[in-house]
Amino acid sequence: MNAEPHHRLRASPAGAADAAGLVRTYKTWKGSNRFLLGGRLIFGPDVRSLPLTVFLIVVPVAVFCGLVARKLIDHLGISVIVAVCVLTLLALVLLLLTSVRDPGIVPRNVHPPEPEDYDASIEGGSNETQQSRFPRMKEVVINGIIVKIKYCDTCMLYRPPRCSHCSICNNCVQRFDHHCPWVGQCIGLRNYRFFFMFVFSATLLCVYVQGFCWVYVVRIMHSEDISIWKALIKTPASIALIIYSFIAFWFVGGLTMFHSYLISTNQSTYENFRYRYDGRDNPFNRGTIENFMEIFCTKIPPSRNNFREKIPKDPPVLPTPIDANFVNPVMGKAMSDIEMGRKPLWNEASAELGDYSNDDGVNKDPRSSEADASQDLSGTLPTESTERHVASHPRRSSWGRRSGSLDISPEVLAMAAGVGDSRRVTDGINGNFRTQTEQSQISS
């Protein structure tokens, strides 16, 4: 189930009593996931492809058991059918373990950083950094190598090392490998082990079916003393299964070999495709044996999300206008961007504020534009004494600290410490934060 919009919650017939009640976490989930059994099972948004994957596994095995393996019981015994059924059951169980569990979703923050606390004097860096006026990256040291961690505008957090945002599931996933449409789920820290075992078991199943189909063809050839081509004609089911298993082997077998290489070098698919040309050392590579032990012999960390936990319904976010007749267009634009998943570009919203003050559409001198805007808004904006009174009380977020603090959270540093010696190197904007009013006073 997707999270219900806030306006639907407010429009419930229960009214205020319902709005003050509790709701399961999965019902207000901001990602694109689908939930079953009251939030006990979590899938990706493309979970509809999962039955197709099951069909592609079960139907060929059923044909093999009914038309090929059954005729080999006289010479090889019932073990031929038992073995293929065990392999099929193993593949299906591993498929479900990969698909129905939390892949390692990082819980998103509730509150974004507040725009008035951004540093207006940022110089250098990318255009995106200058536009958003926000430190896009931080750096940590892992095993003596500097690793950059990025800020996620959608989840409103600094991603832990090896974490990336999946655009399909709309979540940040720890040790993100890729999003697999065949299992309908992201592949990450908590289900990569089962994904590899599923692909490997599917490879064994293809080899098994292919091999015993040829055994059956050879048996026909010897029993009737005919050529192999005539023997193939006598068993069209074997021909279909040989072709099908051969094609499937190139897919699942290729994935098995590729991910075996990735495990041996402690890479993810995302890291391999993104950093293959950089020529940089891999800070997570511990050696082939230890890399395999890390994947298959370590304890899977518990999920950081309790989807069945009861939480209060999100209260409606109401604007706080300065006056009854004035609503800040900058904040309106920024909050709209955040709700739509866009990056909050505060200068873009400021440009729209300029459109409000310049009705004629002609470019003017910046100082004259500011003067015109101040004249138009002089009747609605608070007085200077009011600004001083408000400025004397520092704003604090709901977490009990100053809103402008952009340090890396202790959880991110703890995750980085789990893969090596981690410490803060730089945040890209060391120094005090100044408001736009203070910056304009300094420049003037």
TrEMBL record:
It comes from the Eukaryota. It is a multi-pass membrane protein. Residues 108-129, 352-444 are annotated as: Disordered. One of its GO terms (molecular function) is protein-cysteine S-palmitoyltransferase activity. Keywords: Acyltransferase, Lipoprotein, Membrane, Palmitate, Transferase, Transmembrane, Transmembrane helix. The keyword Acyltransferase applies. It holds the Pfam family DHHC. It is found in: Endomembrane system. Its main location: membrane. The chain crosses the membrane at residues 50-69, 75-98, 194-217, 237-258. It catalyses: L-cysteinyl-[protein] + hexadecanoyl-CoA = S-hexadecanoyl-L-cysteinyl-[protein] + CoA. GO terms for biological process: protein targeting to membrane. Residues 361-370 have a biased composition (Basic and acidic residues). Its EC number is 2.3.1.225. Residues 149-274 form the Palmitoyltransferase DHHC domain. One of its GO terms (cellular component) is Golgi apparatus. Residues 371-384, 432-444 have a biased composition (Polar residues). Belongs to the DHHC palmitoyltransferase family. The DHHC domain is required for palmitoyltransferase activity. This is S-acyltransferase. The lineage of its organism: Eukaryota, Viridiplantae, Streptophyta, Embryophyta, Tracheophyta.
